[in-house]
């Protein structure tokens, strides 16, 4: 009787829950495969993904989209506004800047430097900050004290001042030296966010449960804590991406970023600021590209964060 | 299983605690062999001796200075026998959950030993510790936080196999996970679902399946049903009892609900402020309690029967549990005890069969840490 | 206090009203969420008189707390909606009152005690200040008077050395003492009705008994109505006069406390009583109500309990049973007893 009762209870349980929403139960699934399946169906992800792909292609091979040299200057075109019907050609679409260079071409060629700075800085900052934050939050104790004080020290350095010091150490300044400088100065915010979120997650029972099973530190950190702690880092990072591109412009404007001869959105935005009343298009087009890029990455970040949370499916 | 706890030779102070046969392992291999040796039903499998856990209280940020300690567990000893359920009851802050963490090696003991088949697990490391981990598993209290929300049920229950890859070959794991789901009464097709898609009771079943995966010998249950609804509690308790018979498990069942502990346990230990107040078979503790704290605790349990209630002996304690950072001298319970005298403040009562009951064949003759132990039935209507 | 003074704090018009203090009629509450409409309360009827204790018993999701929040007017609306029903306090429907009128009743006429005393108290203000605030805001007392009143109240709820502890902060009190402070706050304005939502669930058994006793004593002293919301069959047995058992947003059984335990008239109540282990004897295998509590997004048709009920027949899946009075086998009256089961006769007498 008693056995029958239990089995009945058990069977009833199976019946009581509603049928699985997805009938494809054949293959074992994981968070990442489920997230990917989910992302592919998410229009936000598809749109932002395609946009980012296009931007990457532009950054890699701008010559696919224009045959005009971004550095070719013809003072006859000095601040010529678009659309200019006297010359129909792709060089005219976005007008010309003060030195008579094609804004269209400059926007395309400038993508490379700006996207490298934006994406690589974000990536570097996220990885460095997340690692520091994760170790500080997970191990606690003296390591946490040490890393937190280190974070505070870096956090206290003013960005521009710090960047001037670091960039002056480079004799040949390239995109990469700008990236290194900004990563060194920017990781602290992510580290703080990550530390807080790791401390919250590590107190939860499932981390204890994994430890009780004999799981090693690596497994606990990367399988249990990281996926549950990474969401705020994704949000903060993608929002910060636009800021990095803008900071690069400021640095270049101050003469410590990219050399003035380099083609970048940042350089063009800072030179366009001075003529906003007379020739707004010089500022408008690189700024618009920057905004679209930032928006695409924020949308991507949002979609990824949601996909990594099974509760939102 | 009453005979298990009745140790015929009254030993020094704690006759309920049997001799530890210490296995001297000189290498990892020897230790692992000792750990994997089977234990007869009714033999001690886990022996805890003088276990202490003090959490230091510190002051200062950079240069920390210890200003005291919270004595969460302050010298407890007990045995767990193969195949039995030992219940540990006590109020919040009595240290019962810390005991669970110490047994699971999730916290480092300040002092004392935990012998698992004669091996002190507080001193093990490497392969031997891993072998112990495989054999002692845990079921957690809160089914909402004890399962990783970002892992599928298949991954959660399969994780033990990833960590202890020798238990199941890779190709076999999915089948094993589905078998486990079936054993705990869940549909094996749920393998790709996430924890939030289940109710509390179902989640606790998932937690139990994870605990069973490695075929452990001991399961430590820390308040496994207290977060569940009444109607679901009974299902989970029945499941746990069925699994105990099926897989020959020993349970250490930690809970604050005295009725549930009585239902599931063969023996019961009552903890107060980090120490064991009284320990004995369920009949000895519930029907013949001799420690005043046990009596007060039992009498305070609300009984769902208004008529029985009116005739029950009620003891309402005054005051609150003192801070474990600064426990009272002598008997820890004396500040709330109606029997307390000067002796109680000066002498710490030992956990032993009280003098007056020694040698007598009465259920009151079980270990109780009170200078003035006497029997008082508070559970049954007068 | 002189004899001439009217000690009962009854508002104008109170004397003219004779009837239950609080009367809830056919109350419905829904939550409109992203996933659909969660029907949390589906037609609840109950009443409480002065000096009476009604226990509302139910598991999580039964709607017991939502009903209480609707009475207090502290539901978040939206997402909550009250599509129909009446909540009459001294004969007046509170759902028809203006926000201002309701606010005046809340706190002074009806007070609430929550489960988690620590999060209900502001951690950065002293306990005395928070107690005194009630008097300063509602009664316009001076700081000094309010403090004296606070100490008096803390004495009332048996907090030792009240005068010395009045300036302490919530974290300096133990769980049981904090719950006493919550009770003191609820009592401050001498309300007519107190709603206690799981007041002792977070406390240890030995402290639980103290707090429950205190609550019952104060209720008698002030002749208040008390609604005690709980999931614990044991706690209820102690202090309640009558019990309403809730399941899936509906009352399935109502009875005077002794009768409910002796002879339940609804299979759910019977199942609950059978499924708790006994303290005074070692039981056999526990009876377990099969299945799971209902999903409020998809409440089963007919009787909500039918998928889990051992007595369920076809009619149970088709027709919602009304909460009707039950009688003895010979037709003799059972005052105050009702059950919402098609087969109450079999359950009660079987």
Order of helices and strands of chain C: EEEHEEEHEHHHHHEHEHEEHHHEEH
Quote the average pLDDT of chain C. 83
Class from helix and strand fractions of chain C: alpha/beta
Say which CATH homologous superfamily of the largest domain in chain C is assigned. P-loop containing nucleotide triphosphate hydrolases
What is the count of distinct domains of chain C?
2
Provide the CATH topology of the largest domain in chain C: Rossmann fold
How would a crystallographer describe the biggest sheet of chain C?
8 strands, mixed
Quaternary state reads heterotrimer
Features:
heterotrimer, B: 382 residues, alpha/beta, Rossmann fold, 7-stranded mixed beta sheet, 4-stranded antiparallel beta sheet, C: 350 residues, 2 domains, 5-stranded antiparallel beta sheet, globular, disordered N terminus
Outline the secondary-structure elements:
The complex is a heterotrimer of chains A (313), B (382) and C (350).
Chain A: H1 2-16, H2 31-40, H3 43-60, H4 103-139, H5 141-156, H6 159-168, H7 175-202, H8 205-212, H9 217-229, H10 231-253, H11 265-273, H12 280-307
Helix pairs in contact in A: 3-4, 3-12, 4-5, 4-7, 4-10, 4-12, 5-7, 6-7, 7-9, 7-10, 8-9, 10-11, 10-12, 11-12
Chain B: H1 2-5, H2 28-36, E1 44-59, E2 65-81, E3 85-89, H3 96-103, E4 111-116, E5 119-120, H4 126-135, E6 136-139, H5 153-163, H6 173-183, H7 200-212, E7 218-222, H8 230-247, E8 250-255, H9 258-264, E9 267-272, E10 275-281, H10 282-287, H11 292-300, H12 306-310, H13 342-346, E11 367-368
Parallel strand pairs in B: 3-8, 3-9, 6-7, 7-8
Antiparallel strand pairs in B: 1-2, 1-4, 4-5, 9-10, 10-11
Chain C: E1 22-33, E2 36-48, E3 53-57, H1 64-72, E4 80-81, E5 86-89, E6 92-93, H2 99-105, E7 110-113, H3 117-120, H4 127-139, H5 143-156, H6 162-165, H7 175-187, E8 193-197, H8 205-222, E9 225-230, H9 233-239, E10 242-247, E11 250-256, H10 257-262, H11 267-275, H12 314-318, E12 324-327, E13 333-339, H13 344-349
Parallel strand pairs in C: 3-9, 3-10, 7-8, 8-9
Antiparallel strand pairs in C: 1-2, 1-4, 1-5, 5-6, 10-11, 11-13, 12-13
Helix pairs in contact in C: 4-5, 5-7, 7-8
């Amino acid at each position: 009787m008693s056995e029958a009762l239990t089995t009945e209870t058990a069977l009833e349980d199976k019946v009581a829950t509603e049928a699985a929403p997805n009938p494809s139960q054949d293959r074992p699934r994981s968070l990442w495969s489920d997230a990917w399946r989910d992302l592919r169906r998410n229009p936000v992800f598809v749109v932002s993904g395609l946009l980012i792909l296009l931007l990457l292609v532009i950054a890699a091979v701008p010559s696919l989209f224009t045959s005009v040299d971004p550095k070719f200057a013809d003072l006859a075109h000095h601040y010529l506004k678009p659309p200019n019907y006297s010359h129909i050609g792709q060089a005219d679409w976005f007008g010309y800047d003060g030195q008579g260079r094609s804004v269209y071409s400059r926007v395309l060629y400038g993508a490379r430097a700006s996207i490298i700075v934006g994406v690589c800085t974000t990536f570097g900052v996220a990885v460095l900050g997340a690692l520091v934050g994760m170790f500080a939050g997970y191990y606690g104790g003296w390591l946490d004290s040490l890393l937190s004080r280190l974070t505070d020290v870096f956090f206290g350095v003013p960005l521009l001042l710090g960047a001037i010091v670091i960039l002056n150490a480079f004799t040949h300044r390239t995109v990469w030296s700008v990236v290194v400088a900004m990563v060194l100065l920017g990781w602290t915010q992510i580290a703080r966010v990550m530390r807080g979120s790791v401390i919250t997650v590590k107190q939860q029972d499932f981390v204890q449960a994994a430890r009780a099973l004999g799981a090693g530190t690596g497994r606990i950190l990367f399988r249990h804590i990281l996926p549950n702690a990474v969401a705020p880092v994704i949000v903060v990072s993608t929002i910060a991406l636009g800021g990095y591109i803008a900071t690069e412009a400021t640095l270049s404007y101050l003469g410590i970023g990219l050399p003035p001869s380099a083609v970048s959105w940042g350089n063009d935005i800072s030179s366009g600021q001075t003529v906003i009343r007379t020739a707004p298009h010089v500022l408008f087009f690189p700024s618009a590209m920057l905004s679209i890029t930032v928006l695409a990455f924020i949308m991507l970040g949002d979609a990824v964060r949601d996909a990594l949370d099974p509760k939102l499916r | 299983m009453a005979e298990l706890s009745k140790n015929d030779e009254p030993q020094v102070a704690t006759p309920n605690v049997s001799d530890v046969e210490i296995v001297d392992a000189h290498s990892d291999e020897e230790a692992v062999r000792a750990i994997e040796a089977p234990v007869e039903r009714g033999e001690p499998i886990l022996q805890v001796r003088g276990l202490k856990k003090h959490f230091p209280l510190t002051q200062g940020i950079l240069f920390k200075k210890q200003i005291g300690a919270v004595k969460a567990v302050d010298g407890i000893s007990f045995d767990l026998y193969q195949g039995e359920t030992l219940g540990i009851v006590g109020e919040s802050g009595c240290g019962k959950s810390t005991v669970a963490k110490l047994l699971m090696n999730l916290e480092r003991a300040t002092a004392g030993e935990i012998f698992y088949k004669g091996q002190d697990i507080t001193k093990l490391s490497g392969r031997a510790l891993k072998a112990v981990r495989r054999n002692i598993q845990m079921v957690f209290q809160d089914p909402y936080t004890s399962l990783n929300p970002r892992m599928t049920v298949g991954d959660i229950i399969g994780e033990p196999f990833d960590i202890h890859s020798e238990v199941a070959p890779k190709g076999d794991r999915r089948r094993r996970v589905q078998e486990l789901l079936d054993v705990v009464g869940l549909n094996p097709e749920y393998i790709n679902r996430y924890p939030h898609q289940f109710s509390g009771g179902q989640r606790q079943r998932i937690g139990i399946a994870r605990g069973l995966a490695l075929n452990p010998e001991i399961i430590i249950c820390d308040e496994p049903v207290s977060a569940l609804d009444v109607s679901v509690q009974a299902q989970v308790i029945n499941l746990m009892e069925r699994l105990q018979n099926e897989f020959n498990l020993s349970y250490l069942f930690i809970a604050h609900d005295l009725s549930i502990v009585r239902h599931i346990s063969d023996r019961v230990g009552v903890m107060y402020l980090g120490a064991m107040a009284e320990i004995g078979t369920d009949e000895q503790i519930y029907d013949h309690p001799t420690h005043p704290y046990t009596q007060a605790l039992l009498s305070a349990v609300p009984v769902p029967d208004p008529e029985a209630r009116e005739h029950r002996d009620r003891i309402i304690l005054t005051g609150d549990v003192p801070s474990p950072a600064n426990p009272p001298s002598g008997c820890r319970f004396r500040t709330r005890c109606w029997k307390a005298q000067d002796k109680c403040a000066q002498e710490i009562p030992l956990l032993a069969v009280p003098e007056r009951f020694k040698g007598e064949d009465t259920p009151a003759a079980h270990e109780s840490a009170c200078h003035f132990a006497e029997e008082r039935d508070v559970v049954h209507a007068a | 206090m002189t004899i001439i003074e009217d000690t009962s704090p009854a508002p104008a018009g109170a004397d003219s009203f004779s009837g239950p203090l609080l009367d809830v009629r056919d109350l419905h509450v829904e939550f409109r969420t992203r996933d659909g409409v969660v029907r949390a309360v589906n037609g609840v009827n109950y009443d409480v008189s002065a000096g009476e204790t009604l226990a509302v018993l139910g598991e999580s999701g039964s709607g017991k707390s939502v009903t209480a929040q609707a009475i207090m007017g502290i539901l978040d609306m939206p997402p909550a909606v009250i599509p129909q029903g009446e909540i009459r306090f001294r004969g007046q429907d509170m759902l028809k009152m203006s926000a201002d009128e309701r606010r005046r009743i809340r706190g002074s006429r009806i007070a609430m005690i929550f489960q988690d005393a620590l999060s209900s108290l502001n951690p950065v203000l002293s306990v005395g200040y928070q107690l005194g605030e009630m008097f300063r805001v509602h009664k316009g007392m001076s700081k000094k008077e309010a403090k004296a009143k606070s100490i008096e109240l803390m004495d009332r709820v048996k907090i030792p050395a009240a005068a010395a502890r009045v300036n302490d902060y919530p974290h300096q009190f133990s769980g049981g003492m904090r719950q006493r402070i919550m009770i003191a706050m609820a009592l401050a304005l001498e309300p007519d009705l107190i709603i206690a939502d799981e007041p002792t669930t977070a406390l240890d058994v030995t402290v639980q008994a103290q707090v429950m006793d205190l609550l019952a004593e104060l209720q008698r002293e002030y002749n208040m109505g008390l609604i005690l919301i709980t999931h614990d069959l044991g706690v209820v047995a102690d202090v309640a006069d009558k019990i309403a058992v809730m399941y899936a947003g509906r009352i399935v059984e109502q009875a005077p406390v002794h009768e409910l335990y002796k002879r339940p008239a609804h299979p759910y109540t019977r199942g609950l009583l059978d499924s708790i282990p006994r303290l005074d004897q070692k039981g056999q295998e526990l009876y377990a109500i099969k299945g799971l509590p209902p999903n409020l997004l998809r409440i089963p048709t007919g009787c909500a309990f039918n998928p889990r009920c051992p007595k369920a027949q076809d009619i149970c899946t088709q027709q919602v049973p009304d909460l009707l009075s039950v009688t003895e086998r010979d037709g003799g009256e059972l005052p105050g007893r009702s059950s919402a089961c098609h087969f109450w006769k079999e359950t009660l007498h079987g």
